[in-house]
Design a protein that fits this description.
With about 140 residues, the chain is α+β, with helices and mostly antiparallel strands. It has six helices and five strands. A five-stranded mixed β-sheet has the order 3-2-1-4-5. It is globular.
Length: about 140
Amino acid sequence: MRYQSQEWLDAIVAKSRTDEAYLKKAKGLTVKQRSIITDAPGGVDILVIWEWDDGKVVTATRQEKPAPSEWRNWKNEEPYISTSVGTYENLAKIAKGEMNAQVAMAKKQFAVHGNMLKIFAKMGKFNAFSELVASVKCEY
């Protein structure tokens, strides 16, 4: 299964509902978030909308448009806690655990738009989710 494919997203959804160690760490995470992946293979930008309920991923829906798309310029808006934007290459490094998301943000290799106080209050839960994502094997 390929990174950022719907099959990969579905595998993350399934694992988020059954991984007890993850669910302990993510308990209380009930939010929606948008991820914009730019410069993906095939010359596309990808939009993924994530929705969590008490740590479990309820849905992860995927769309794509030819790059560069207007998604790259989106800022955050309700009902999303955040809108993240990063290249496929950098997000793959984060997913593989080769790059820390906070370090990537500091280096401007990855952007997160939204209410930073709300986001940082949930950072431990998002870090647990990043660990879960890294555990779902795929091809890059």
